[in-house]
Amino acid sequence: xxxxxxxxxxxxxxxxxxxxxxxxxxxxxxxxxxxxxxxxxxxxxxxxxxxxxxxxxxxxxxxxxxxxxxxxxxxxxxxxxxxxxxxxxxxxxxxxxxxxxxxxxxxxxxxxxxxxxxxxxxxxxxxxxxxxxxxxxxxxxxxxxxxxxxxxxxxxxxxxxxxxxxxxxxxxxxxxxxxxxxxxxxxxxxxxxxxxxxxxxxxxx
Length: 205
Hints:
The chain contains eight helices and six strands, in the order E-H-E-H-E-H-E-H-E-H-E-H-H-H. It is of the alpha/beta class. It has a single domain, classed as 3-Layer(aba) Sandwich (Rossmann fold), CATH 3.40.50. A six-stranded parallel beta sheet has the order 3-2-1-4-5-6, with helices on both faces. The two termini are 17 Å apart. 37% of the residues are buried.
């Protein structure tokens, strides 16, 4: 009878990002292909709804980084009047990803389908709060203790999830801290290589 062993992707955990000070914006980042499948346009539409429903004085910014339908995304941002709050960077070289994550406080990845995306693990390894769709392998990485799961393609639910972690500083910080702790326990390279080593030893007996 066949036996299946799941070995997760691995990352190097680092220090947690610092939360913004009084009057500083909460920075939300999207990392991935700018496409409908990855939820980039759902995110832009949710941001427009968030802006209309957030409490007065809420200060937040959104950055989308990735290749794909970049021009379409920029046009959508412009048409919705979000240019002051939303920036579409386009492609970011891998060596700059740590810099992008290190300047953020929340990762949003409202995909329609996923496996075990490195963008989410890398964000958690920086202590970011993550807001993701409850699809594919994401619920195996994220639960309510270390992030927020939303239905795919649900603009109001995504807007509400973002509003919750942007407005509530303590909840955002706690979810980020728990995300980093989960990476240290389950997805740290130093943890995963031991699982691989044990598997190879078992196979060679």
